[in-house]
Design goal:
Blueprint (H helix, E strand, L loop, with lengths): L18 H9 L10 E2 L2 E2 L4 H7 L16
Antiparallel strand pairs: 1-2
């Protein structure tokens, strides 16, 4: 996969195109088994803390709702 996106834009992909897998890999939610990736020059394996500071991901599952109270 080779992907270049501009900031402050919206991008769509077809169903089954690997969107969730790609986001999970780039956000560190899933460990990559091989290959490399970089985000603004930050290596996926070496600089995940820097990548997480500049990105945000809302998971498809409501993983926190059972922990929240009013």
């Amino acid at each position: 996969l080779s992907l270049s996106l501009c900031t402050r834009t919206h991008t769509t992909c077809d169903q089954g195109a690997g969107k969730s897998t790609t986001i999970n890999l780039l956000s560190g939610m899933t460990d990559a088994t091989s290959g490399t990736a970089a985000m603004y020059g930050n290596d996926l394996h070496a600089d995940m803390a820097a990548i997480r500071q500049m990105t945000g991901v809302w998971p498809q599952q409501n993983i926190l709702f059972d922990l929240l109270t009013v």
